[in-house]
Amino acid sequence: IASVEKQSESLVSENTMLKSRVDGMAKSQLDMVSEVGQLKSELQSVLGSLETLTRSVKVDQGTVVSGIEQQLQSLSERLARFEPQSFVIDNQTVLVDAKEKSAFEAAQGLLSSGATEAAAAAFDEFSRRFPDSALRPWALHFEGAAHYLRKNYEPSISALSELYKRYPGHPRVPESLLTLAASQAESGQARAARSSLDLLLKQFPDSSQAVTAKKRLAALRPSKN
To answer: What's the pLDDT tens digit per position in 158-169?
Structure first.
């Protein structure tokens, strides 16, 4: 009996120990589950923050890229103002900058619309602003023609004389010499007009203006009677 009681006590003690271990393991498992749950919660929070940050970075990147594109566009437009541009006139292509092109086209528009006074002023301003422009010979020619149409003979003579002096071989010179002679004749400078017509015939004998020059020269010659 004593032996049985001893074994019984031993079993009870062992059972108590096992229960304690089981309870400890259960508690550990509960703690682990709780900890895992907490870790999952923290992970979700981190992932959420990461997603928000990613969206923010994308937005920032988009803003930066957009800003860079705008700056590049602005720089390109600014550079374009200084780059030579092609301009076709009288079947010739010349290179001018954007400001020259704009100013010349504006003056042309005035002349085409019949605003001869404004056109003459615009072409004169063009010549002053762009003295080395490839379009200056045309500006002088059109300025002289506009003044002639308004019967402002002296400024017409000045512009057309400058054209021949600076650009004697320019294709508009024959026409300009004809207009120059007309301005001189209209202002009572018959001798100067004859000289201009003689110059036209000498320098450009095969031009279409030469035929008209011969007729006008004959009309301007002093009568022998």
So the answer is: 999 999 999 999
